[in-house]
């Protein structure tokens, strides 16, 4: 059962990472096209500011699930070299548990501003999109990160470390 759940979390994290990458490419294309249109025809693309902001939200928040689940956070391995592997595994699970607590709080803290944006009818500056849509995307991204952190808590540390070493050897 836990293998099935871990597999689902892994697929979710990969899917979120793919969406993050797509959002990043679209953001770069939008900025490039806007700058080119402004320079060549003195006619910027309307809505680029809003689109880039929304895509940035998706690009940043949807990548977190994959980063946490695969344990690719930025770390300084000072203690890992001195501790035995079991203690290192405990520390990895402990910090993943802390991530679960922090991300749970962030999800909880995001609900009220999302509800207020919907209740008051807040809209984006250029496109006039309801801002609560952006809040939903952000909430989904952080919720995915929360699931990734839960997966990192229960996943065997050796499997994830093996995956990480193979990625480092392949140059990804």
TrEMBL record:
<dbReference type="InterPro" id="IPR055348">
    <property type="entry name" value="DctQ"/>
</dbReference>
<dbReference type="Pfam" id="PF04290">
    <property type="entry name" value="DctQ"/>
</dbReference>
<comment type="similarity">
    <text>Belongs to the TRAP transporter small permease family.</text>
</comment>
<dbReference type="GO" id="GO:0022857">
    <property type="term" value="F:transmembrane transporter activity"/>
</dbReference>
<keyword id="KW-0813">Transport</keyword>
<dbReference type="GO" id="GO:0015740">
    <property type="term" value="P:C4-dicarboxylate transport"/>
</dbReference>
<keyword id="KW-1133">Transmembrane helix</keyword>
<dbReference type="InterPro" id="IPR007387">
    <property type="entry name" value="TRAP_DctQ"/>
</dbReference>
<feature type="domain" description="Tripartite ATP-independent periplasmic transporters DctQ component">
    <location>
        <begin position="27"/>
        <end position="154"/>
    </location>
</feature>
<feature type="transmembrane region" description="Helical">
    <location>
        <begin position="90"/>
        <end position="111"/>
    </location>
</feature>
<dbReference type="GO" id="GO:0005886">
    <property type="term" value="C:plasma membrane"/>
</dbReference>
<feature type="transmembrane region" description="Helical">
    <location>
        <begin position="51"/>
        <end position="69"/>
    </location>
</feature>
<keyword id="KW-1003">Cell membrane</keyword>
<feature type="transmembrane region" description="Helical">
    <location>
        <begin position="12"/>
        <end position="31"/>
    </location>
</feature>
<protein>
    <recommendedName>
        <fullName>TRAP transporter small permease protein</fullName>
    </recommendedName>
</protein>
<keyword id="KW-0812">Transmembrane</keyword>
<comment type="subunit">
    <text>The complex comprises the extracytoplasmic solute receptor protein and the two transmembrane proteins.</text>
</comment>
<feature type="transmembrane region" description="Helical">
    <location>
        <begin position="131"/>
        <end position="155"/>
    </location>
</feature>
<keyword id="KW-0997">Cell inner membrane</keyword>
<comment type="function">
    <text>Part of the tripartite ATP-independent periplasmic (TRAP) transport system.</text>
</comment>
<keyword id="KW-0472">Membrane</keyword>
